[in-house]
Amino acid sequence: MSFTLPALPYSYGALAERGMCQETLELHHGKHHQAYVNTLNTLVEKNDALKGKTLEEVVKLSHGNPDLTPVFNNAGQHWNHSFFWNSLSPTGGGVPGTLEAKLKEDFGGVEQFKEQFKNAALTQFGSGWAWLVLGNDGKLKVTKTPNADTPIATGEGKPLLVLDVWEHAYYVDFRNRRPDFTDNFLARLANFEFAAENLKAA
Ligand code: MN3
Q1: Which terminal CB of the chain, N or C, has fewer other CB atoms within 10 Å?
Q2: Can you identify the CATH homologous superfamily of domain 20-86?
Q3: What spacing in Å lies between the alpha carbon of 168 and ligand 1's midpoint?
Q4: How far does residue 7's CA lie from ligand 1's centre (Å)?
Q5: pLDDT tens, position by position, 114-132
Q6: C-alpha pair distances (Å), 51 with each of 41, 46, 67, 176
Q7: What is the DSSP string of the chain?
Q8: Ligand 1 centroid from CA 33, angstroms
Q9: Could you tell me the residue ranges of all domains in the chain?
Q10: 150 with 170: CB under 8 angstroms?
Q11: pTM score above 0.70
Q12: Environment of ion ligand 1 (residues, CB < 5 A)
């Protein structure tokens, strides 16, 4: 059994009017994400201990194991990107009431959450990810991870929403302007309905 690239939950051109053009998605999903899936399949095929495991199992088994760094990097990137596509929406930016109430409770309000999230996205040096997670204490938390790292491996909490802050995520649309990319995500692309569903299921 091998891993496959999940189809986007919208068309390649669906986010163009909201600041993520077709070329970005064709490269990011069709080239970058596809390459992680292909490399992961090649590596797992050569490793009897990993064959037949689910993606989450491969991520957790390879995390922190120096012998399996290439496996972790590609498995983590596959998981994170699959989650990222669902964190975007052609009707994004609106925060449903259930999530808004919880953001108010744990951050003081939606704007305070957005400030913390933007700060995480901007202070992630180099490549990585900014996350909204449900912490193990039951409180919402903003966090960031470098490279392919992911809360499902670090145990920092249950992921609710993610933003890819690797340069390949924004260079076509925003050149080097990660702050503008992050603001645009929070205002017009973030699928807070998806985050609210993840919160409800937690
Ligand atoms: Mn990416």
Answers
A1: N
A2: Fe,Mn superoxide dismutase (SOD) domain (1.10.287.990)
A3: 6
A4: 15
A5: 999 999 999 999 999 999 9
A6: 9, 8, 16, 39
A7: ----PPPPSS-TTTTGGGT--HHHHHHIIIIIIHHHHHHHHHHHHT-TTTTT--HHHHHHHHTT-GGGHHHHHHHHHHHHHHHHHHTB-TTTTPPPHHHHHHHHHHHSSHHHHHHHHHHHHHHS-SSEEEEEEE-TTS-EEEEEEETT--HHHH-S-EEEEEEE-SHHHHHHHHTT-HHHHHHHIIIIIB-HHHHHHHHHH-
A8: 7
A9: 20-86, 97-201
A10: no
A11: yes
A12: 164, 166
Tell me, in angstroms, the distance from the centre of ligand 1 to residue 79's CA: 11
Q: What percent of the chain has pLDDT over 70?
A: 100
Q: Which fold has domain 97-201?
A: minor pseudopilin epsh fold (3.55.40)
Number of residues in the chain: 202
Q: Residues near 89 by Cβ (< 8 Å), separated by ≥ 6?
A: 10, 189, 190, 191, 193, 194
